[in-house]
């Protein structure tokens, strides 16, 4: 028996639009009746991925584009000495290659999905950034940053989440070893939700203030031209379409999503430091 005919690209897009509209309606109902939980300054589950599905699929304003170099997994891996791993760029629409992380090396492999406008992500950075920096710098951990854009709707029409993630992608592409410092600086300058966010000029200024950054002119041009905005949309959509491969999460539900050695941290039982320590201990016993 022949296989059923594969839906056309237009049919798949229309089906995706319908799923996005239904998801938006369901999310509005949930937001109307649910209260958010707070623990240690982190709001649990505040950001729903459905918003970006609606933005990317229904409006269709961000065309696909090639990805930045050094983000073949849709994330950039930073290791000992805060040095980034080098990888080739994804072509437009190409599926990412998940990072292979050994679980027997007494190292914490941290994967972090964040939105630069997300207040939870800012709180996580303030509380754990210094700890992560020391651990990664010493070789006790790697961190894989996945910038996503799910809060464009909360930046008064300026698409700040996309613009900030595009700027981060530009740094990954043109000055990868500056990524950790740029991420740190961008969260230090984090604007409030429901504001216009940082201007492109301010994003360029933040990049320019990073000590030792390379190819600044190229980064500034990428910020002005939204060079990686299409990739940001694709990577954000892929985060929601794919199960959190290599982890115990079944799906991406919001930011920050933090995974250590394949296990998701939810902040309800252990502090992040305790969770990392336990994750390393688990790997040494295997």
Give the helix/strand layout:
Layout: H1 9-33, E1 37-39, E2 42-44, H2 50-59, E3 76-79, E4 83-84, E5 108-114, H3 119-138, E6 141-147, H4 160-174, H5 179-188, H6 200-208, H7 216-225, H8 229-241, E7 257-260, E8 263-265, H9 272-285
Helix pairs in contact: 1-2, 2-8, 3-5, 4-5, 4-6, 4-7, 4-8, 6-7
Give an overview in words:
This protein has 286 residues and is of the alpha+beta class. The termini are far apart. It contains nine helices and eight strands. It has a six-stranded mixed beta sheet, sandwiched between helices. Strands 1-2 form a two-stranded antiparallel sheet. The protein has a single domain (9-285), classed as Glutaredoxin, CATH 3.40.30.10. The chain has helices at residues 9-33, 50-59, 119-138, 160-174, 179-188, 200-208, 216-225, 229-241, 272-285; strands at 37-39, 42-44, 76-79, 83-84, 108-114, 141-147, 257-260, 263-265.
Concise account of the structure shown:
The protein is an alpha+beta fold and 286 residues long. It has nine helices and eight strands.
In CATH terms, the superfamily is Glutaredoxin
Largest beta-sheet details: 6 strands, mixed
Looking at the overall shape, the CATH architecture is: 3-Layer(aba) Sandwich
The SS-based structural class is alpha+beta
The run of helices and strands is HEEHEEEHEHHHHHEEH
Count of individual helical segments: 9
Q: Helix fraction? A: 40-55%
């Amino acid at each position: 028996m022949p296989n059923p005919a594969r839906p056309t690209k237009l049919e798949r897009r229309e089906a995706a639009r319908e799923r996005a509209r239904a998801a938006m309606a369901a999310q509005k109902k949930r937001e109307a009746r649910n209260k958010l939980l707070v623990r240690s300054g982190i709001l649990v589950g505040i950001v729903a991925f459905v918003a970006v599905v609606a933005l990317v699929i229904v409006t269709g304003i961000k065309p696909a584009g090639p990805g930045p170099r050094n983000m073949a997994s849709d994330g950039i891996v930073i290791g000992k000495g805060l040095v980034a791993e080098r990888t080739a760029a994804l072509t437009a629409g190409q599926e990412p290659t998940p990072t292979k992380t050994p679980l027997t090396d007494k190292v914490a492999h941290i994967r972090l999905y964040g939105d630069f406008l997300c207040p939870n992500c800012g709180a996580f950075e303030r509380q754990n950034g210094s700890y992560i920096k020391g651990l990664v710098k010493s070789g006790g951990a790697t961190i894989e940053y996945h910038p996503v854009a799910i809060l464009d709707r909360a930046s008064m029409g300026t698409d700040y989440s996309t613009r900030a993630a595009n700027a981060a992608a530009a740094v990954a592409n043109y000055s990868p070893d500056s990524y950790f410092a740029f991420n740190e600086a961008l969260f230090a300058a984090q604007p409030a939700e429901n504001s216009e966010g940082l201007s492109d000029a301010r994003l360029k200024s933040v990049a320019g203030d990073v000590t030792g950054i390379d190819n600044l002119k190229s980064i500034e041009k990428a910020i002005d031209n939204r060079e990686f905005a299409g990739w940001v949309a694709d990577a954000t959509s892929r985060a929601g379409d794919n199960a959190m491969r290599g982890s115990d999460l079944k799906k991406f539900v919001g930011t920050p999503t933090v995974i250590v050695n394949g296990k998701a941290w939810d902040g309800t039982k252990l502090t992040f430091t305790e969770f990392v320590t336990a994750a390393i201990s688990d790997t040494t016993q295997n």
